[in-house]
Amino acid sequence: MKVLVIDDDAINRMILSHLFEDRKAEVLVAKDGLEASKILKIETDIDVVLLDLNMPVMDGYVFMKHLESDVFNTYHFKLLVVSATLESHFYEKAKQMGLTLNRLNFFIGKPINLDYLYSIVIKLLSNGT
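^ thats the sequence. predicted structure below, dont judge the formating
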């Protein structure tokens, strides 16, 4: 499994990296959506993207808008938003921004239950949905 963690908080990146590395996954990290976009252009075999919403430079909403462009429409990774933003606020802002959310597979709020997050990732990868 290859995972991309996108979060501006170094501690969150470290915790999420360790969660997957301890389970033998390859983990890449980015501190914002712009850095993540550059990684995705090179690393085309990523299985899972964990995305924070509130980041400088390119936040999670703009990153998702970028994912809806033709640049990434052939990529088949699972996208999970991992954010302290309330889920209802997330969906409202996404709607206001015109996001289709067709790439989003799951939303999980912070603080994160790591075992739960990992089980969701495994379920998404095994179901293909």
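The longest strand covers residues 78-83.
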